[in-house]
Design goal:
The complex is a heterodimer of chains A (about 525) and B (about 325).
Chain A: H1 2-19, E1 25-30, H2 45-50, E2 60-62, E3 69-71, E4 74-79, E5 85-90, H3 110-121, H4 137-141, H5 144-147, E6 148-155, E7 158-163, H6 170-174, H7 184-193, E8 209-215, E9 219-224, E10 237-242, H8 246-254, H9 266-274, E11 278-284, E12 287-292, H10 303-312, H11 315-322, E13 327-329, H12 352-361, E14 368-372, H13 384-397, E15 401-405, H14 409-416, E16 424-430, H15 437-444, H16 460-471, H17 475-492, E17 495-508, E18 511-512, E19 528-529
Parallel strand pairs in A: 1-10, 14-15, 14-16
Antiparallel strand pairs in A: 2-3, 4-5, 5-7, 6-7, 8-9, 9-10, 11-17, 12-16, 12-17, 13-17, 18-19
Chain B: H1 2-29, H2 34-39, H3 46-55, H4 62-74, H5 88-123, H6 128-142, H7 145-159, H8 182-189, H9 194-229, H10 232-239, H11 244-272, H12 276-281, H13 287-297, H14 300-328
The chains are: A alpha+beta (about 525), B mainly alpha (about 325).
C-alpha cells in the first residue's frame, strides 16, 4: 500500500513538473536607460532599442542585417511616376498589444498611420507639444514637415502620402524608428483622460514585444506579443538589465547573468572571444570618423594643402592604436558596406616625404594648426584624444605644429559647427537609414554648412550630384551619381577620412537568430535561446 | 530644546534659498543646453532650437526663470525632467530609496567594523594590530573605487560565484516596490529566495561604498580615543581600580565619540550625495548617477531639484547628528 502511494505521489509530482511551462527569458544587458518610450521625440539608439524595436512596428522594415526595406505593416505599395505619391496597402488584421493599462478594441487601420505622422508634422496637433519641450527631432531633421504635403486615409487599409518633391530615400526613412506607428485609440484615450504624458512612459504598439514594466535605471521588462502579426516570438520574456559600465557588462555576460551585450570595451573583445561559452558577432559599422578641415580658413581653403596633410597622417596606426585593430582605414566618406561605395577611388597614400613636398609646393611654411578632439568615446571613434595625439606626431614630422583642443561634449558640438572655427575637428557619423544621401548630403552638402557640415565645405559640383541623386528613385542612376560624388570628394579632400569602426555584439553561445543591424540598433525579433 | 529647533528652522530657509540660487546658476554657467544635446552629432536647425528653448522657457532672462522656479517650488512643484519629461520629484522618489538603502548598509558596515577597530588600535597602540589596522585603513582610503569594485566582482562573482555581478536583485524576481528598499520589499513579496538575492546583491556594493568611510572612521576613532585615553580622568578611573573594559567602554568612549559622530555625519552626507562610481559599477539605480547624467545632459530641472532635495536630506542628517551630541554628552544638551 505504501509503495503505491509513493508511486502515486511521484507520478503526480512528475506530471506537475512536466506541465509547468518554462518561460524562455532573454536578458539583454543594455548600456543605458532609455530617455523615454516614445521613439518619435528622441534620437538616441539606446532609446530606440527599448521602444521602437520592441514595442512598435513600421510601415516598412529593414531586412534583418540589411539596409534594404521589406514590407512591414504595409503589405505592398505603389509609387507614382513623378515620385510624389506613395500609396500603401496595410496588412489586414494587425492587432495592437493588450496590456494591463489599456485594452484595444480594434485592429490597426489607416487612422493610426495618419495619426502617427500628423502628430509629428502638424504644429496645431494637440500632440505637437504634449509635454514641455517635446520636439519631433528626427522627423524635422529628415525634413519631413517640408517634404510631406499630406498623409491621407484612402480607406481603412490604404494610406496615401503626397510629397512636395520627389525624395528617393523616402521609403528608407519610413523604416526608421521615428516612423513607428502608434495607436490612435490609445492616444485618444490618454488625451481624454488628461494623461498624455503616459504615451512616453507606457508604450503600446503592434511590435513583437509588449511593454510590461520599467524600473527606472534598473530593468525594463517585456513579454512576447501573443498576437504579433508576424507570429509570436520564440522568446517569452525579454528583460533589459541596464548596466552602464562596459567592463561590468562583460562580467555579467561571462557569469551568465545576461545573454547579449552591446558595446564591449575594445580591450575586452579578445577575452570574450576566447570564452567558449560565448560568441562575438562583428561587422563593419555603418559609420565613419573623420578630421574635418575648416575649408573656409586659410590655408585649408586650398585642396592641395588638405591633400598634403592627408598624406602625412598614418591612418593604419590610428586604427591599430585607437581601435585595437577593430576597424578599417576609411578612404571614402561612406562605409564599404553601403551601396554605391566607390572602391575605385584611391586613398591619399601615407607618405611623409610626399606630404612635405606637397606642402612646400603649395607655399605652406611653418604651419601651426589646431586639431579638435572629442572628449567622449563614440562608436565611430573610441578615443579621439589619442587619435589627435597620433596625428600631432605625424604632422610634426612634416613640419606642421599641432595644438590639440578639446571641450566638454555639449560645448564641442556647439563650437565645432561654427563657420569660424579655428582648426580641424574630429567627429564622425553613424548612418540612420542605410542611404548614401544620409552621409553625403547631410554631412557635406552646401545647406549643411554651419550645421552638420563641419568642413564648412560647399562645392558646387559635389552638391549638384547629391541633390540630383535625391530626386530619382532609380538605384542604378543614383549609384553612378554617388560614385562621381566620391571622386570629387577625394579630389577636394575636405576631410581626412579616418576609419570605419567594427561593431561587436558579444553574446552567449546559446543565443541564435540575432543579426547585427547595420544602423546599429539592437533587435530581438527572430532571436531564440537554447535551454 | 524648542529654541534649538526654532533656531535651526530659521537657518533652513536662507540655506535653501542659497542652495537653489547656486544650483540654478551653476548649471546654466556650463556651456551647451539640453535641447541641442538631445540631438547629439545631428545638428538642429536654429529656428527649431529656438522654438523648443522657448517652449521650455529657457530663452527668458535668468532671473525671470529663477523667480518662476521659486514660485513653483513653494507650491512643492520641482518641475519635470527636460529629457524624460517625468516629474523630478517622482524620479527622485523612485531612485532615492536605492541610494538610501545602500548608504545605510555601507555606513553600518563602516561603523560596526570601524569603531571597534579604531578602539582596539588605540588601546593596543604601537602593536602590530595598531599598525595593521592603520595600514589597511590607508590602503582602503587610497583604493580607486572603480578598480576595487571590479576586483571584487571578478573574484566573488565570476570566480567564486558567491555574489551576483550587479543589480539590486536577481532578474527573476519581479514585484512592485512598496517601500523602495529591496530588503524589505523582497520580504513583503513573499517570493522564495527573493530576500536572499537582495541581500547577496547588497554585499559587494556595501563593501565598496563602505571602504572609505570605514577607513576614515577607524582612523578618527583611534585618534579620538588616544586623546581621551591620555586625559587625567581616565588615569584617575584606572587608579581607582575600575575594570579596563569599563574605563575604555564607558568613560573614554563616550567622550571620544563626539568627533567620531561628526565624522560619521559628514560621511553620510557624502554617501547620500550620490555614490556615483559605486552606482555605475553595480548598476545600482540611485540618485548619484542620475544627478551626474543630468549634469552631462544639462537637464536643468533635475540638477536643480536634485541638489535641493539632497541639500534637504543632508541638513536633516546634520540635525540628527547635532541631537545625538546631546545623547552622548549631557553637557551639550540643547
Amino acid at each position: 500500500m505504501k509503495k503505491i502511494s509513493v508511486l502515486l505521489a511521484a507520478t503526480v509530482l512528475a506530471s506537475a513538473m512536466a506541465s509547468t511551462a518554462w518561460s524562455k527569458t532573454l536578458v539583454y544587458c543594455s548600456e543605458g536607460s532609455p530617455e523615454g518610450f516614445d521613439p518619435a521625440i528622441y534620437t538616441a539608439g539606446t532609446t530606440f532599442d527599448a521602444s521602437s524595436r520592441t514595442v512598435y512596428s513600421r510601415l516598412v522594415e529593414f531586412k534583418h542585417g540589411k539596409t534594404e526595406v521589406e514590407p512591414g505593416l504595409a503589405d505592398s505599395w505603389t509609387v507614382s511616376d513623378d515620385g510624389l505619391t506613395y500609396t500603401f496597402k496595410l496588412h489586414p488584421g494587425v492587432k495592437y498589444q493588450t496590456t494591463d493599462f489599456f485594452t484595444p478594441t480594434r485592429d490597426l487601420n489607416a487612422d493610426d498611420v495618419v495619426f502617427s505622422f500628423e502628430r509629428q508634422l502638424k504644429a496645431d496637433s494637440p500632440w505637437a507639444k504634449y509635454v514641455a519641450g517635446v520636439s519631433y527631432e528626427y522627423a524635422a531633421g529628415m525634413g519631413f514637415p517640408e517634404l510631406i504635403k499630406s498623409v491621407e486615409k484612402v480607406d481603412d487599409l490604404t494610406v496615401k502620402f503626397t510629397l512636395n518633391h520627389p525624395e528617393a530615400p523616402f521609403l528608407a526613412d519610413l523604416a526608421m524608428d521615428f516612423a513607428s506607428v502608434v495607436s490612435k485609440e490609445y492616444a485618444d484615450k490618454l488625451q481624454a483622460d488628461g494623461k498624455m504624458e503616459q504615451m512616453n512612459q507606457m508604450p503600446l504598439g503592434t511590435g513583437p514585444f509588449t511593454f510590461v514594466a520599467y524600473q527606472p535605471d534598473a530593468v525594463i521588462r517585456y513579454k512576447a506579443n501573443e498576437s504579433y502579426y508576424k507570429g509570436k516570438e520564440k522568446i517569452d520574456d525579454l528583460v533589459f538589465a541596464i548596466t552602464p559600465d562596459a567592463s561590468v557588462r562583460a562580467q555579467k555576460l561571462k557569469a551568465g547573468e545576461c545573454h547579449i551585450m552591446p558595446y564591449p570595451n575594445a580591450a575586452d573583445v579578445k577575452d570574450l572571444k576566447a570564452d567558449s561559452s560565448l560568441k562575438v558577432l562583428e561587422q563593419p559599422g555603418l559609420n565613419v570618423s573623420y578630421l574635418a578641415y575648416n575649408t573656409q580658413q586659410a590655408p585649408f581653403d586650398k585642396p592641395e594643402v588638405r591633400k598634403a596633410l592627408n598624406m602625412a597622417i598614418n591612418k593604419q596606426a590610428i586604427v591599430d592604436a585607437v581601435f585595437q585593430g577593430a576597424g578599417q582605414v576609411a578612404k571614402n566618406p561612406i562605409p564599404p558596406t553601403m551601396w554605391s561605395y566607390n572602391d575605385a577611388v584611391k586613398d591619399d597614400a601615407y607618405s611623409p616625404d610626399e606630404a612635405k613636398k606637397a606642402l612646400e609646393a603649395a607655399g605652406v611654411k611653418d604651419l601651426s594648426m589646431k586639431i579638435w578632439a572629442m572628449p567622449v568615446s563614440r562608436p565611430y571613434m573610441l578615443n579621439a584624444r589619442r587619435a589627435a595625439e597620433l596625428m600631432q606626431a605625424d604632422l610634426a614630422k612634416v613640419g606642421v605644429k599641432v595644438e590639440i583642443v578639446t571641450h566638454e561634449w555639449a560645448e564641442y558640438l556647439k563650437l565645432s559647427k561654427d563657420v569660424k572655427r579655428d582648426g580641424a575637428a574630429i567627429l564622425g557619423w553613424t548612418g540612420d537609414n542605410g542611404d548614401p544621401d544620409n552621409f553625403l548630403d547631410t554631412l557635406l552638402g552646401c545647406e549643411a554648412v554651419g550645421g552638420n557640415n563641419r568642413a564648412q565645405w560647399c562645392n558646387k559640383e559635389f552638391d549638384a550630384l547629391v541633390k540630383k541623386a535625391k530626386k530619382t528613385a532609380d538605384v542604378a542612376e543614383r549609384t553612378k551619381l554617388y560614385e562621381e560624388a566620391q571622386v570629387v570628394f577625394k579630389k577636394e579632400a575636405p576631410w581626412a577620412t579616418i576609419d570605419h569602426s567594427t561593431e561587436f555584439v558579444p553574446m552567449s553561445a546559446k543565443v541564435s537568430g540575432y543579426v547585427q543591424d547595420p544602423v546599429g540598433v539592437h533587435r530581438f525579433d527572430g532571436v531564440d535561446i537554447a535551454e | 530644546m524648542f529654541r534649538f529647533f526654532i533656531g535651526r528652522l530659521a537657518v533652513l530657509i536662507p540655506t535653501f534659498l542659497g542652495v537653489s540660487i547656486i544650483a540654478f546658476a551653476f548649471i546654466r554657467l556650463l556651456p551647451g543646453d539640453p535641447v541641442m544635446l538631445m540631438s547629439g552629432e545631428r545638428v538642429m536647425a536654429p529656428e527649431r532650437h529656438a522654438e523648443i528653448m522657448h517652449d521650455l522657457g529657457l530663452d527668458r532672462p535668468v532671473y525671470v526663470q529663477y523667480l518662476d522656479y521659486l514660485g513653483n517650488l513653494v507650491q512643492g512643484d520641482l518641475g519635470s525632467s527636460i529629457v524624460t519629461k517625468r516629474p523630478v520629484l517622482q524620479e527622485f522618489a523612485s531612485l532615492f530609496p536605492a541610494t538610501l538603502e545602500l548608504s545605510i548598509c555601507a555606513m553600518l558596515f563602516a561603523v560596526i567594523l570601524g569603531i571597534p577597530a579604531g578602539i582596539f588600535a588605540a588601546v593596543k597602540r604601537g602593536t602590530w594590530f595598531d599598525q595593521g589596522v592603520m595600514g589597511v585603513a590607508l590602503v582602503g582610503y587610497s583604493m580607486p573605487i572603480f578598480w576595487w569594485g571590479l576586483l571584487l566582482i571578478v573574484l566573488f562573482s565570476n570566480t567564486l560565484h558567491w555574489t551576483p555581478v550587479s543589480g539590486r536583485i536577481s532578474l527573476m524576481y519581479f514585484f512592485k516596490p512598496v517601500t523602495g528598499f529591496m530588503l524589505i520589499d523582497s520580504l513583503i513579496s513573499g517570493q522564495a529566495g527573493a530576500f536572499k538575492s537582495a541581500f547577496q546583491s547588497l554585499i559587494l556594493p556595501t563593501i565598496v561604498l563602505g571602504t572609505i568611510p570605514l577607513a576614515v572612521i577607524a582612523r578618527q576613532t583611534r585618534s579620538a580615543m588616544l586623546e581621551v585615553l591620555g586625559e587625567d580622568y581616565v588615569r584617575t578611573a584606572r587608579s581607582k581600580g575600575l575594570a579596563p573594559l569599563r574605563v575604555v567602554g564607558v568613560h573614554a568612549l563616550r567622550n571620544a565619540m563626539i568627533p567620531v559622530v561628526t565624522s560619521i555625519g559628514l560621511q553620510v552626507g557624502v554617501l547620500l550625495g550620490g555614490a556615483i562610481l559605486t552606482e555605475t559599477i553595480f548598476s545600482w539605480p540611485g540618485i548619484g548617477k542620475w544627478m551626474v547624467d543630468a549634469v552631462f545632459k544639462r537637464d536643468y530641472t533635475v540638477v536643480q531639484g536634485g541638489l535641493l532635495l539632497i541639500a534637504a536630506i543632508i541638513m536633516l542628517v546634520n540635525l540628527i547628528v547635532d541631537l545625538m551630541y546631546g545623547l552622548i554628552n549631557p553637557r551639550i544638551r540643547h
